[in-house]
Amino acid sequence: RTTTVDTTAPSISSESLTPVIVGQSASVGITIGSVDFGTGTTSASITVFTLSGTPIASTLSLTNVETVDGLHFGDWRGTFNFPTQATAPDGEYRFVVTAFDGAGNRKDEQVGTVTLDRTNPATSIVSIVPAIAKPGTQITVIATAQDITTAIASMTERDVTLGESPFPMIQTGGSTAAGQTSTWTRNFSAQLPESA
Q1: In this structure, how many other beta carbons lie within 10 angstroms of the beta carbon of residue 27?
Q2: Whose CA is closest to 71, among 10, 13, 2, 3?
Q3: What is the CA radius of gyration of the chain?
Q4: Which residue from 12, 99, 115, 165 has the least number of CB within 10 angstroms?
Q5: Which H or E run contains 29?
Q6: 3-state SS class at 147
Q7: Using CA atoms, how far apart are residues 93 and 56, in angstroms rounded to an integer?
Q8: Measured between alpha carbons, how far is 64 from 10 in angstroms, rounded to an integer?
Q9: CA 12 to CA 175: how far, in whole Å?
Q10: Distance between CA 49 and CA 184 in Å, rounded?
Q11: For residue 70, what pLDDT is reported?
Q12: Model pLDDT for residues 155-170, shown as the tens digit of each residue
């Protein structure tokens, strides 16, 4: 009869959080790689905290999806769904994994952060010049955009009178960084609607 003595906690060999900036879906895919050369990793879970250390939801148990070399190497996966905005407002959150092996040794490790942004950017049309124009006259549209939590990636504009698709605007001022205001411009030639 043999007895296995295991006093070493599992180690986290890899981690993946996708995406690291999440919007309205409020859903994050998690893959954790764990290594334990003693009694093997028997469970893994994720707890999500605010930056100040307050958990925002119940601990999520991960599922073992692959084991290599007996119990020694394993991948654990799961999907974390953020709770309502009242419980989890926009901001940055810490993802901490807890892994246990067959001997009860415990490993806690932060595996990354995720930025939650469920609020649409604030936009405003500054000017449309000229307000009245003949066909062929150049129209200039200037607008601003701001997002408190994440950067502005792009801005589009479309002429609903013409039924056109959204057209990319060009950033002409300000900053797209979180909390900053950027200015965007589009120039185009005035046209009559097809039914005119």
Answers
A1: 13
A2: 10
A3: 26
A4: 165
A5: strand 27-35
A6: coil
A7: 9
A8: 14
A9: 38
A10: 36
A11: 63
A12: 999 988 888 899 999 9
